[in-house]
Every structure is written in structure tokens, then in C-alpha cells.
Amino acid sequence: MYQNQTFVSEYEYNQRNLREVHQLLDDLFTYYSKVLVVRLDLCFNDTYAHQLQQSHITDYIAKFRNYSRCNKIFDHMLTYMMKLEYGEQKGWHLHAMFFFDGNKVAEASYKAIQIGSYWVNTIVGQQLAYYFNCHEREYDKNGIGRVKYHDGDKQRILYDVVAYFCKFDEMTLNQFSQDQRNPRTFFRGQLKINPNHKSGRPRLY
């Protein structure tokens, strides 16, 4: 398992979530030679983003998850993760990452546009939501897009990226009532491996 020694120390993390997402990446690159990592932010418009109750957001997440099971946009998706955050300017929003079989899906930016449009048009509504496609930004160190199992440098950056999803955020936690001792701000799917799939990486032993 990859041990992140550079990024994790900068923040305080939910260590259980951190272990789980790093194990998730380990499993992905054990079973798949190429993984397409699609990164975007799912947002709410202006005033609505500040008026939302947490229960409304979890309803949107549940709706997103349920509807995606029968939508071709999500064909070959392996799993996903989301982090709920509250910002002074943006209000409530979701950082999201979707993992696809990189042998079956090739264009990360186009897939982000598809998912973002689905969020706006189907899940929330055009007047209430928007999205940001992270693949339209240039990064000095890029760990998203297509990642191959033998590309250790890109994987190390990816491990840093997913670590962000597990960090504690004081502003976000302060939005919850005091009786919510452990508010849920992190959501992820389970990785289901089909034993008959043919996208596994070639074994060297």
C-alpha cells in the first residue's frame, strides 16, 4: 500500500477514511491496468447554496446515486467518492471523483461534462445548480485523467488528491448542529470486481 509522506501531514484527516480510499486505489490498480479518473465539483447557485439544509444535500446525493445505476453515462464506472464542503462564498458544494475502467472509457474531460450536465439538468435543476470541470484547468502535477498501473509518479499525485477528500474542514463542520457529533461529509461507492472482467493488468509473476 502506498504511504503518503508529503501531503497528509499538512492537514488533519479522518484516518479511517484515508486508509479506506488508499486501499481503494490499491485495489483499483491491482485489478485494472488503466483507470480513468474523472474529477469535477458539483455546485449550487448563489443563494440556494447557502439556504440548503444538509438533509437536502444528502437527498440529492442519494438521487444521484440511484439514478446513475440505469444511466449509460455511468457505464464502466468502477466506483466514486464525494466530499461535502461549505465555503463562505460558494456555500454548500460537492467535490466529486469518479473512477472508470480506462480500457473502456478514454476521455475524462468529456465524461466530466456529461456527469456535470446530468447533475444540473436531471438531479438538481438548471436554475439551481452548476458544475466545474477540473480537467479544464492546467496542473503542475496532474493525478487525474487516465492513470496506468505502472505510472508510479501519477499514482502518487492521485493519492494526494484523494487524501483531500478525507481532511477535516472546520468551516463545514461548524454548519452542523452540536447534537450531530459525527456529521457525514464523505461519501463513496463500493468497488465491485467482476471476476470475469478482462481489464486486469498483466501479471509479472
Tell me about the largest β-sheet: 6 strands, antiparallel
- Weakly predicted, low-confidence segments: 1-9
Residue fraction in strands = 15-25%
| Total DSSP E strands | 6
Mean pLDDT: 87
- Cα shape: globular
Secondary-structure content class: alpha+beta
Helix percentage: 25-40%
- Alpha-carbon distance between the two ends: 18 Å
Secondary-structure element series: HEHHEEHEEHHE
Radius of gyration: 17 Å
Number of helices: 6
What quaternary form is this? single chain
Descriptive overview:
With 205 residues, the chain is α+β, with helices and mostly antiparallel strands. It is 35% helix and 22% strand. It contains six helices and six strands; from the N terminus they run αβααββαββααβ. Strands 1, 2, 3, 4, 5 and 6 form a six-stranded antiparallel beta sheet that branches. A hairpin with a 3-residue loop joins strand 2 and strand 3. The chain is globular and about 45 Å long. The model is unreliable at 1-9 (pLDDT under 50).
Keywords:
35% helix; globular; alpha+beta; six-stranded antiparallel beta sheet; 205 residues
Could you provide a short overview of the structure?
By secondary structure, this protein is α+β, with helices and mostly antiparallel strands.
